[in-house]
Write a structure and sequence with these properties.
Strand content: 25-35%
CATH architecture of the largest domain: 2-Layer Sandwich
Strand order of the largest sheet: 3-9-10-16-13-12-11
Helix content: 25-40%
Bound molecules: adenosine-5'-triphosphate
Structural class: alpha+beta
Length: 455
């Protein structure tokens, strides 16, 4: 794994994974842009999550709710009142910092001065104006989590799918938080993506489902290549527990800057649906909620056994996509000493996450038959639907191997004179991790590649 954030940042920029946002204007703190390979990696991680959370289960539906929502959503969700971090100002250097991130509450992170203010609450939501009129009422917020769109669509999903408990709704999308101190590359940023599941169950079954999701989510991260010894659970207790949560388990990963939260799995009880439902008094809610004077829908489901309407409990595994990508990159990063004394950098991604699946390189860039066969193979492999297959005609295979090691391409295929002269058109297949080369007849290449990526 990577030892420092700097080596990752530098590889990400050099090879086109991640760039500083607004770089040509001096940058924008807490915002990053995903480059040609970053977007592939991100899409692959999202697809893996969706596959395991939606397609491989029969009790989860997908959703893509709007980022901009009615401001009442954040009034009743509690974000307007309580989505804050404690902030401290330094009188000496004028910097601001998150009080709970300070090494010592009385010492400025930046200049070391002890001349700092007492902590005060800072709301992390970005406020924005909606429509052409600017007045007291025309504001809303960019969503600070995707979850609220799931709760507000609870009735729509139940009515359109006839779901009964237990079932879940999954969503991936952008969230925005005006973090006081963005830091550690893409670990803490102001614009990021979340992959969230809200899993609804009967009260009384919530603890069982909470355990289930904690373990299921850990296993998923292992399946993305994270090593067991780099993952820890943190049981959130006392003051750190959000007011709506009965219990929360954070899944931590050993990032270059230390063990930190990758995903939180919370038992949110009936707080969310109970907050957004109308006729709250009918349901005997267990959570303490603000009285809702605006909702027009009952967010409840019929219990067929007891023939009554009830507000389900909700278990929420909430993962950061950007943090996930950082974890996967940290883990994959490998510096290897080779027998000839040189070193190589390899990103040992799991094949399903690799930004480029196969690179096809003609050995001679000016030989038309070689080029034609290489292009034909590229088109054939591309049609398999595995992701990006790259045809690359630089004429320097050695350099190509090094570059593809560094961006984690699992397979490189070279087409040479043998391929056009010998029967069966043999091509050379090189494995990223072992660096071993084998010869495969061109006609068998698609089957070889499918077998490699699917099994
Ligand atoms: P933290 O304590 O690190 O601020 P949080 O507990 O506020 O995180 P949640 O509200 O539980 O985070 O959000 C769920 C997930 O969303 C987190 O586990 C993380 O992966 C991701 N996430 C939250 N805030 C950010 C951020 N500013 N930048 C990148 N990812 C984030």
């Amino acid at each position: 794994p990577a030892k420092t954030m700097d080596e990752l940042v530098s590889l990400c920029k050099r090879r086109g994974f991640i760039f500083q946002g607004s770089e040509i204007y001096g940058g924008m703190q807490g915002a990053y842009d995903y480059g040609p390979l970053g977007i592939e990696l991100k899409n692959n991680l999202k697809a893996a999550w969706w596959r395991s959370m939606v397609y491989e289960r029969d009790d989860v539906e997908g959703l893509d709710a709007a980022i901009i929502q009615n401001k009442h959503v954040y009034k009743y969700s509690g974000h307007e009142d309580t989505f804050t971090d404690p902030m401290v100002d330094c009188h000496e250097c004028k910097s601001r910092m998150r009080a709970d991130h300070m090494k010592d509450i009385k010492v400025c992170d930046n200049c070391g001065s002890t001349n700092v203010t007492a902590p005060r609450d800072f709301n992390l939501m970005f406020k924005t104006n909606v429509g052409p009129m600017v007045n007291e009422e025309s504001y809303t917020y960019l969503r600070p989590e995707t979850a609220q769109g799931i709760f507000t669509n609870f009735k729509n999903v139940v009515d359109s799918t006839s779901r009964t408990l237990p079932f879940g709704i999954a969503q991936i999308g952008k969230s925005f938080r005006n973090e006081i101190t963005p830091r550690n590359f893409i670990f803490r940023v102001r614009e990021f993506e979340q992959m969230e599941l809200e899993f609804f169950c009967k009260p009384g079954e919530d603890e069982k489902w909470h355990d289930f999701w904690v373990n299921t989510r850990k296993q998923w991260w292992l399946d993305q290549g994270l090593a067991e010894e780099n993952i820890q659970f943190e049981y959130v207790t006392g003051d750190d527990l959000a007011h709506y949560s009965k219990s929360t388990v954070d899944i931590l990963y050993k990032f270059p800057h230390g063990f930190e939260e990758l995903e939180g799995v919370a038992n949110r009880t009936d707080y969310d649906l109970g907050s957004h439902t109308k006729a709250q008094e009918e349901f005997g809610l267990s959570a303490k909620v603000k009285k809702n004077e605006h909702s027009t829908a009952k967010l409840a489901i019929r219990d067929l056994e007891e023939n009554k309407w009830e507000v389900p409990f909700c278990i929420e595994p909430s993962a950061g996509l950007d943090r996930g990508l950082l974890a996967v990159m940290t883990e994959a990063y490998t510096e290897e000493e080779l027998p000839n004394g040189t070193t190589r950098t390899v990103l040992k991604f799991k094949p399903h996450l690799a930004p480029i699946k196969v690179a096809i390189m003609p050995l001679k860039k000016n030989k038309p038959e070689i080029v034609a066969l290489a292009k034909e193979l590229k088109n054939k492999l591309q049609k398999l639907g595995l992701g990006r297959i790259l045809y690359e005609n630089t004429g320097n295979v050695g350099k190509g191997y090094r570059r593809h090691d560094e961006v984690g391409t699992p397979i490189c295929v070279t087409v040479d004179f043998d391929s056009i002269e010998q029967e069966g058109a043999p091509v050379t297949v090189r494995d990223r991790d072992t660096m071993e080369q084998i010869v495969v007849p061109a006609a068998e290449l698609p089957a070889y590649v499918i077998n490699y990526f699917i099994n």
